[in-house]
Amino acid sequence: MHSKLARLALPWRVSSLRVAAVLTAMTLIGARAEGLTVFQATLGETNQKTAEVNTEEVRRVLADASAIVLDARKKSEFSAGHIAGAVNVALGPDTPASAHVAAVEKLVLGDKSRALVLYCNGQFCMQSRQLADQLVAAGFTNVRRYQLGIAMWRTVGGLVEVELEGITRIFQIDRTAVYLDARLPEEFTQGSLPGAYNLPADTAGPNALAKAPLPRDNFNTRIMLFGRDGVQARKLAEVFSRLPYQNVSYFPGTYSELSAALAGK
């Protein structure tokens, strides 16, 4: 197995992003000791009913669609930000285990041999472990977990999507978030989200980034990206995946959808 990480007695108040930073450091130390990169590392868990996959494997299955990447968290958590390309079948905050398993079975059209990769909020989160065990008990035969989770995925520059429900809720409650519009300047001047800054995806080079109102002393500040459509927003997200910001999400829908939803609030 890959890097085995010792559990930390961290206080519950520590943010998931701070946990991710500690976890990243531990993973790097363990991975280097075994001649691995951080992308090849796992927690190295033992006595689990399902095996772990590493970040490199998650990237691969997303690219070749060889497995369904399943977010095991609550719908509200998924909506606020999830691994780009992942799906979620939670029906609500109190979805019972039987309903959750039935929803996964419906997702795979009854094929319990379909490859599944589950994840949740990382090392200390039990949601992917519990759902994985429930699926195995129900007869699913190809279930694995990305137990490093969304926190590590963000830390290593993985792309994160936000749902329409999530971005509209965040817009209402997070006054510290930075909103970047990836559209062309002529589109931006015709109207955008209140307080948004125009950073066209096609010209987001070093000079443009230096002028953007990005946080320079807090790389955990929430940054939300949107564009004419999901392709444009994702292109800007790929630029940010090579920058040190740890809390970046992009909206995969259209600007028209987003502006209409916010206008209705």
Description:
This protein is α/β, with parallel strands linked by helices and 265 residues long. The chain folds into two domains: 140 residues, Rhodanese-like domain (Oxidized Rhodanese, domain 1); 104 residues, Rhodanese-like domain (Oxidized Rhodanese, domain 1), CATH 3.40.250.10. Helices cover 39% and strands 11% of the residues. The chain is built from eleven helices and ten strands. The strands form three sheets. Strands 1-5-4-2 form a four-stranded parallel sheet, sandwiched between helices. A four-stranded parallel sheet has the order 8-7-9-10, covered by helices on one side. Helix 8 links the parallel strand 7 and strand 8. Helix 1 packs across helix 6 and helix 7 crosses helix 11. The protein is globular. 35% of the residues are buried. The N terminus is likely disordered.
Order of helices and strands, N to C? HEHEHEHEHEHEHEHEHEHEH
Percent of residues in helices: 25-40%
| Structure annotation, total helices | 11
- Could you name the CATH homologous superfamily of the largest domain? Rhodanese-like domain
CATH third-tier fold name of the largest domain: Oxidized Rhodanese, domain 1
* The level-1 CATH class of the largest domain: Alpha Beta
Q: What's the domain count?
A: 2
* Uncertain residue ranges: 1-16
Largest sheet: number of strands, sense, barrel closure = 4 strands, parallel
Tell me what portion of residues adopts beta-strand conformation.
5-15%
Strand-pairing-aware structural class: alpha/beta
Shape: globular
- The rounded Rg comes to 19 Å
Order of neighbouring strands in the sheet with most strands: 1-5-4-2
State the end-to-end distance: 49 Å
- Topology, number of strands: 10
Mean residue pLDDT: 88
- Based on the coordinates given, report the CATH architecture of the largest domain: 3-Layer(aba) Sandwich
